[in-house]
Design goal:
Length: 94
C-alpha cells in the first residue's frame, strides 16, 4: 500500500498510494515523476481523484489519463509530453 514506485514489466512504473491521505499521494507522485526515465510512464493507484495534481502535471510538461481502477478506485497513467514511446505504452495499457 505504501510501497515506493517500482518498475513492472514493460515501460510502466507502479505507484500504489491507495489509502494514503493528502498530500502524500501528490508528493509521492511528483517524486516518482522526477525520476521517470524516458520511455516510461507512471501508473498511480489511489482511492480518490487527485484534482490538485492535474494542473501541476500540465505545468511540469506531463500528460495523463484517468480511469476507474481495477485494484484501486482510480488509476492515473502519467507520461512526459512528447515522449511517444511512453504515451504508446500508457495508452496500450488502457
Amino acid at each position: 500500500m505504501n510501497a515506493p514506485a517500482k518498475t513492472t514489466p514493460g515501460y510502466e512504473r507502479l505507484l500504489d498510494v491507495d489509502g494514503l491521505e493528502p498530500p502524500q499521494p501528490m508528493e509521492r507522485a511528483l517524486d516518482a515523476l522526477a525520476q521517470l526515465p524516458p520511455g516510461h510512464y507512471l501508473r498511480m493507484l489511489l482511492h480518490r481523484e487527485p484534482y490538485l495534481l492535474y494542473p501541476l502535471l500540465e505545468e511540469d510538461g506531463f500528460r495523463f489519463e484517468t480511469r476507474p481502477g481495477r485494484r484501486a478506485l482510480f488509476e492515473i497513467l502519467i507520461w512526459r509530453s512528447g515522449d511517444e514511446a511512453a504515451e504508446r505504452a500508457a495508452l496500450a495499457a488502457l
